[in-house]
Amino acid sequence: MKQSRRTFLQASMTACTVAVAASAGLLTPRAVLAAAWPKSAFMAKSVNDALKALSGTSSTANSKDITIQAPDIAENGAVVSITVKTSLPKTSQISILVPHNTTPLCASYLFTEDTEPYITGRIKMRKSSDVIAVAKAGGKLLSTKKSVKVTLGGCGG
Amino acid sequence: MALRKMKIRAWSEKNDTASVKAIIFHPMETGLRKDKATGKLIPAHFITELKCDLNGKTVLTCLWGSRVSKNPFIAFRVKNAKKGDTIKLSWVDNEGMSDSGETKIQ
User: Fold this and answer.
1) pLDDT tens across A72-117, in order?
2) B15 vs A20, A111, B79, CA distance in Å?
3) ipTM of the prediction
4) Least CB-packed of A41, A57, A77, A88 within 10 Å?
5) Which residues of A touch B36 (CB under 8 A)?
């Protein structure tokens, strides 16, 4: 009984250490990052912090090759339909951010060679704001934005 | 909590691509909303990761925050997909719940 308790304690300690190391960013090979949900990016309170936590840099260049389809006026901020597509080659990731939400990062989509860089989803918006789409193509971050007017906020609180 | 089963539609289009549309039934609570009866905050409960597989190979990973709408809808296009191929969607949420569903490309 004692033996098993000891082994259990040791095992849980090891698990904790690994978890701490991973969250502290010590174990950050790409594969691990891609597989794990980037909590710090989703908890970030500003667009720059979110992008830094997600991609390591917050510098983005404007691009006309990314299109956001969103309503000009959204009656209900709880359901705003957003379509993002791009003609940029080698797009590996598209992230959708709303600067005026308490946590700007809404969603991030990781594409592979077998998917077209096109995504439609629905997001919540607290108030009228820009919607920013950031695409990662060939290691660079490119972005575009579109303003959406919200008549009824949709994040609660 | 019993959730309704997700709905997926997939159909082939020209140039070997296929369109996929899906709706997943999930509350997607932000953690900011108050319960009107008790005045207490409703804890955050949302899908964190959604994976889309084509014939067992992951082709799209969606990382979601709580700002994705309730009962999330998603549409995307898959390349090199033929009629009869299997599209599988599986999700995990922040409370460790998970579900998956699959369909054949029409």
Assistant:
1) 999 888 999 999 999 998 899 999 999 999 999 999 999 999 999 9
2) 47, 19, 8
3) 0.90
4) A57
5) none
Query: What is the DSSP pairing of strand A140-150 with strand A80-86?
Result: unpaired
For residue A138, give the DSSP letter: T
Q: Where are the beta strands (DSSP E) in chain A?
A: 61-62, 66-69, 73-74, 80-86, 91-97, 105-111, 115-123, 129-137, 140-150
Cα separation, A57 vs A50, in Å, equals 9
Asked if A20 and A103 touch (Cβ cutoff 8 Å), the reply is: no
Calpha distance B96→A4 (Å, rounded): 27
Helix (H) or strand (E) holding A5: helix A2-23
pTM equals 0.81
Answer whether A69 touches B (CB < 8 Å). Answer: no
CB A63 within 8 A of CB A143: yes
Q: Name chain B contacts of A38, Cβ cutoff 8 Å.
A: 63
Query: B76 vs A107: CB contact, 8 Å cut-off?
Result: no
